[in-house]
Amino acid sequence: MGPFTLAVETKSSSKASSDVSNRKIHHLQLEARKCFASVNMEKEKPFDFLRILFEGIIAGGTAGVVVETALYPIDTIKTRLQAARGGGKIVWKGLYSGLAGNIAGVLPASALFVGVYEPAKQKLLSLFPENLSAFAHLTAGAIGGLAASLIRVPTEVVKQRMQTGQFTSAPDAVRLIASKEGFKGLYAGYGSFLLRDLPFDAIQFCIYEQLRIGYKAAARRDLNDAENAVIGAFAGALTGAITTPLDVIKTRLMVQGSANQYKGIFDCVQTIVREEGPPALLKGIGPRVLWIGIGGSIFFGVLESTKRYLAERRPPPSQHSKHD
């Protein structure tokens, strides 16, 4: 009986060892696949739309106001460079012109963007395969940008008209634009704005999220504020450089006013290239990359810090929900 018992124990041990090896391999495969999923996805928790929406609105609004206040002069210089035709001179005074009115628009626009982006991202990540998380981030960024454009465009029109010296106050700008150009004047360049901002939002947030996922997987820990800021700066600067021609077109269409120098997006491109040459489509690329690079650093640093602050102050789940 001795040898028989030994044989049984050996087979059992071999089988157990095989099971352990299989579980380890399966676990490693799951970990490899998780590298492509969002670091914010926690599938064991239910999808809480209202909480995600609320936290996104607070975090987005805070980040947007901080960035706009800090970097507004650089944005003003960029706008004046792009609006100058031919060899026009740049005015260096009044670099904070229109800031108060712009913040009044940036606060709800940023809050709306992140408030829409965060729940859309979470929902799409639960629907998309894990290896297609980048498409979830791209789509969520475009959806957030489309929602925010309803506030962003009038804000941008008023801001850029003030930055180029056409008006001295935001209320006057809104009143005069509406009276001379109608309500549609506040949405001048809307098509070019979407042409620039939807790709920009989608690409920037996709790059940012994917870099965070890769960095977190490599570091095997949560990222700190400084690391989030560096990743945000890189994502912003790269996306800003890529979309500069779209930004030039958008600026020209928005600041033309009732003069109607350009008949549309394609006419604007043709006119700029014909009269000023192709390099004119890259006007303001230096200030734009600097502004968006620094802005991305501040925005994403503040965004993640605020999200973490709100998450730490969530009420603990009830005992009832735990048993459920």
Automatic annotation (TrEMBL):
Instruction: State the membrane topology.
Output: Multi-pass membrane protein
Superkingdom of this protein's organism? Eukaryota
The Solcar repeat units are at 50-123, 132-214, 223-309
Carries keyword Nucleotidyltransferase?
Answer: no
What keywords tag this UniProt record? Chloroplast, Membrane, Plastid, Repeat, S-adenosyl-L-methionine, Transit peptide, Transmembrane, Transmembrane helix, Transport
Q: Where are the transmembrane segments?
A: 49-74, 95-114, 134-153
Pfam families given in the database record = Mito_carr (PF00153)
Family the entry assigns? Belongs to the mitochondrial carrier (TC 2.A.29) family.
Name recorded for this polypeptide: Mitochondrial carrier protein
Source species taxonomy: Eukaryota, Viridiplantae, Streptophyta, Embryophyta, Tracheophyta
